[in-house]
Amino acid sequence: MMDNIIFASIPLFVAVDALGTLPIFMSLTHGIKKEKKNKIIYQSMITATCLTIAFILVGKAVFNYLSITVGDFMVAGGIVLFCIAILDIVNPSKVSRVPEGELGVVPLGTPLIAGPAVLTTSLMLIGNVGMIPTIIAVLINVVLAAVVFMFSDIILRFIGDNGTRAFSKIMNLLLCAIAVMMVRKGIIAVINL
């Protein structure tokens, strides 16, 4: 079970990309007091966790209802992940200023922590490692993102803006590779039906 949790945590770590999201978090929370910032982080953790677990639990039922196979979803999800990663490598998007009360839910909880990459990766991992290891891996990665956000000032001072951007690009390249793997496995699954 521990091997499955570790196996599931790695692609989810890449998909969450907490260090890549760090500059966006810093710009959104600039000037906000520490207590409010911690509340925003807590909101983002709850939002990301609830959204991802709900998707994990009902995703298969929706697939069955729509007659979509996991292979179909892997191909589609892999293509979407690939596009998201490429767009972020070529032209990282800027997030506009959002009211403080909503920051933890949107954009931090979703789509920055629990976005299409995390949802797609989570659903793919259920087939590979099972539901419990996937949910545990989601929880681990959401907590890791929260820790990164809580220590954002220290991390940015240590690695700097350029280091953060470089790390984000590397994570996006890994996400591209995971996307290609998903498409390959999806095509194999569809062919073997």
Structural description of this entry:
It is built from 8 helices and no strands. The chain has helices spanning 2-16, 18-28, 34-66, 70-90, 100-113, 116-129, 131-150, 152-191. By secondary structure, the protein is an all-alpha fold. The radius of gyration is 17 Å and the shape is globular. The chain starts with a helix and ends with a helix. The protein has one domain: Growth Hormone, Chain: A (Up-down Bundle), CATH 1.20.1250. 87% of the residues lie in helices and 0% in strands. The mean pLDDT is 86.
Report the C-alpha radius of gyration, rounded.
Answer: 17 Å
The SS-based structural class is mainly alpha
Could you name the ranges where pLDDT drops below 50 across 5 or more consecutive residues?
A: none
CATH second-level architecture: Up-down Bundle
Number of helices: 8
Q: Can you identify the CATH class?
A: Mainly Alpha
Largest sheet: none
Averaged pLDDT: 86
**How many domains make up the coordinates?**
1
Q: How many strands in all?
A: 0
Distance between the termini: 28 Å
- Overall, the morphology is globular
Strand content: under 5%
